[in-house]
Every structure is written in C-alpha cells, then in structure tokens.
Design a protein that fits this description.
Oligomer: single chain
CATH architecture of the largest domain: Up-down Bundle
CATH class of the largest domain: Mainly Alpha
Order of helices and strands: HHHHHHHEEHHHHHHHH
Structural class: mainly alpha
Length: 436
C-alpha cells in the first residue's frame, strides 16, 4: 500500500514537519489529512460533551445510574448494526455512511431542542446517544487508519496523528465556551455536524491519496461476511485479538480503581466544589500539554526504539508504581501526580501502541473486531469494574485490601503487554521477512 506522490518543492510546513516527525515526503499529505480527520472528530465530540453533561444534570443522579446501563445495552445493539454496514457497503463508503447517519441524528436533536423539548426523556436520549457516538466515531477513525497505514508507518506516524485528536480535545471546549453565549447551545449541534462533515471529506481525501488497495482487497469490496456477530466471534477465536480485549479489560479495572480513589481522596481533601473544579481543570491543562508534546516529539521514537509491546507496557508499569505510591501515601499530591502520569501515558503512548497492533490483522478484523473491542469490551469493562470495586467496598473491604487485589491485575496487565509485543513482532516479520 503506497501513497500518491507529488514531487513539488517542500514548503515551510513540510520542512517543519520533517524536523519533528520521522516522515517520508510522500507521506506528508496523508499524515496531515489524518491529523485533520482526528482533530475534526474529537473536536466535534468535545463540543457535544458539555451539552451531554448538562443533560445529565437534567436527568439527575438517580437517572444517571440507569443511563449508564442503557448506554451499554445500546452499544450491544449497535455493534451488530455496525458490522452489517461494514459488510454491506464498499470500504470507501463506510465512513460517509456512518458519519452521515450521525449528522442526521444531530439534525433531529437540533429540531427537537429548537422546539423547546427539554424534558428528562429528550435529555436522557441525548446523553445516551453522545456516549455511544463518541466511541463509534473514534473507533471508525482508527479502523480506517489501520486499513491504510502499514505497520512500519504506523509506528512512526501514529503519535503525530494522535496529536490531532488531542488538539481537537483542547479546541472543542474552547469553541463551546466561545460560542455558547453568542449562538446558544442548540446551534453547537450544527457546529459539531459541520466538523463531522470535515471528517468525511478528510476520509475521502485519504482514500484518494492512498493507492486504493488495502491488504489486497479493493475499496469497492465490502468487508467480510454479513454476520451480525462477526466482530465478537473474531475476538473470541483469535488469541491475538482476545489478548487485546483482555488488555483493555485489565486496564479498565485498574483505571476504574484510580478513578474511584481519586474521587474519594479529592472529595475528602477539598470540600469546596469550586476548588475541586479548579484542580481538575489544572490537571486537564497539564495532561493535554504533556500529551501533545509527547505525541509529536517522543511517541514514534519510543515505539521504534523499544517496540510496540514496551510502549503499551508503559501504562501498566506506571499504574503499578501508582498503586504502590497510593498504598504508601494516599494523599492529594500523590493522587494528582498519578492521575496526570497515567492519563498522559494513556493518550500519548499506550493508545497509539495498541492501535498499531491492528495494522497486522485482516481487513474484516480491522473494522469489526477492533470496533467490538473499542466499544463493547471497553464500555463493558468500565461498567463491570465499577460494580466489582463498589461491591468490594460494600462488603467492608478497605483501601489496602482493594490494592492487594488490584496490584496483581496490574502486574498481569504488564505481562500481557509483553506477550502482545512478542506476537506483534512475529506478525510483523511474517508480513515482511526482510525485517529482523
């Protein structure tokens, strides 16, 4: 799979890009369009997220706990529909069809809210929709990336491409803050829809820039059979994909523990709501800054030098250290440091590394199995982890006892990263025997 070449004198942007990214000149246009695609997707979501959270206030805390259950059930129903779309339409049309559907949904919500319908049912429906929408649009982005970029390209370029998403995550809330009082919250739905339109244009441009061939299967061919459970079956049958799913589940279990402990310690240390908001805002600023800098300058270098397995292992390694630090000193300072480190490594290193793993699977698995892991496994892991940890607390387990359970999970997560790294290296050698 190769990108199209345009032999023109390098411009200022191209010269600057080659200084910070290990990139070939023929890859520059495709990389920038990938960056723009991810920027548009996450910017669109982060414009909607404050609206979703406001809808959550309308529903109330008693309703929210049921909405999370509904989100998971809707996810279970949506994944087979996604698989049907992937099997029905040519690959070049998958992004326009699915993103076009979400744009139509936003138009419907705009009409409903413009009509003054803001009750619990409308608010709850929007809350569930945004929670599902987020995972699907991001998962489809990475499916397209793994379909287009080769494994060696992904290791070099995924860090910079992921920085596009981080920039979108920063820009979305800024756009919301700047426009909400000028145009009203309902109009932000239209802004988000326009950004999804930009994402569609970027996906179509990427298909044009590449040679039109991905893993030997043409763009006009649908992906795989038309089975509703193909993604789940592929994960169950493939040890490689199953280990990726298990990696996600273990990560969710450990991450949920950090999240719950962070909420408990911050709530106990800072009783003022404004002070808590300010703290989390400062953490977000630090995390976003470190994430973008790492993605642009370090992710590719780390992945190429130490491998995909070591890059994925950075997250469970930091989690293990964080658990030990919290067990020794469960203070606000330690919580903030662990939270910032864990989130930065997640976005800048571990997530791109896990996405590289999918570049060496079949086209059908890049879309269906990856989507199943990114949606059902991810959201199901969140829900199950919260129930388990809250259940242990209800049984009277204290902090130390839960750490004793979580630490072995973190160590297993670390070992699994090494196994996935070895499997990825073996698959890479089979794809290109000339590589060591």
């Amino acid at each position: 799979m190769t990108t199209s070449t345009h032999l023109q004198p390098p411009g200022t942007l191209e010269r600057a890009l080659t200084r910070v990214v290990d990139i070939e000149r023929t890859e520059i246009a495709s990389t920038l369009w990938s960056f723009a695609y991810f920027f548009s997707v996450l910017c669109a979501y982060y414009i909607l997220r404050p609206l979703r959270d406001e809808m959550g206030v309308t529903v109330g805390p008693d309703g929210l706990k049921w909405l999370f259950v509904i989100v998971f059930l809707v996810m279970l129903a949506a994944v087979p529909v996604f698989g049907w779309v992937v099997s029905r339409f040519p690959r070049r049309r998958i992004v326009p069809v699915i993103y076009g559907f979400f744009i139509a949904n936003l138009a419907v919500f705009w009409v409903v809210f413009q009509a003054g319908i803001h009750g619990a049912l409308a608010a709850g429906t929007f809350f569930v929709w945004v929670s599902v929408f987020n995972l699907f649009v991001v998962s489809l982005f990475w499916s397209l990336m793994s379909d287009l970029w080769r494994n060696d390209q992904a290791k070099r370029l995924y860090g910079f491409i992921a920085a596009g998403g981080s920039a979108g995550a920063v820009s979305g809330p800024l756009i919301t803050q700047g426009l909400v009082r000028l145009v009203g919250p309902n109009t932000l739905l239209i802004v988000s829809a326009l950004l999804l339109g930009v994402a569609i244009a970027a996906a179509l441009m990427l298909r044009r820039l590449f040679a039109g061939i991905a893993e030997g299967q043409g763009e006009e061919e649908p992906v795989g059979r038309r089975g509703l459970l193909d993604g789940a079956l592929a994960v169950w049958r493939s040890p490689y994909l199953f280990r990726i799913a298990l990696w996600i589940l273990l990560g969710n279990f450990v991450g949920t523990f950090f999240y719950l402990e962070q909420a408990r310690i911050v709530g106990a240390m800072l009783t003022d709501r404004t002070a808590r908001v300010e703290l989390f805002a400062r953490v977000d600023l630090v995390v976003n800054t470190l994430t973008i800098l790492t993605q642009v300058f370090l992710t590719a270098r780390i992945m190429q030098t130490f491998g995909v397995g070591a890059s994925a292992a950075a997250l469970p390694a930091s989690a293990t250290l964080g658990l030990v630090a919290l067990a020794i000193s469960p203070t606000l300072t330690v919580v903030v440091a662990v939270l910032a480190m864990e989130r930065t490594i997640t976005f800048a290193l571990a997530n791109p590394a896990i996405k590289v793993l999918y570049t060496l699977v079949a086209p059908e698995e890049k879309y269906k199995a990856q989507n199943f892991n990114d949606t059902v496994v991810f959201r199901g892991g969140d829900a199950a982890s919260a129930w388990v940890l809250n259940g242990l607390r209800a049984l009277g387990w204290g902090f130390g006892s839960i750490v004793a359970v979580t630490l072995p999970a973190a160590l297993a997560w670390l070992g699994l990263s090494a196994v996935l790294g070895r499997q990825h290296a073996e698959r890479a050698k089979l794809h290109d025997p000339s590589r060591p």
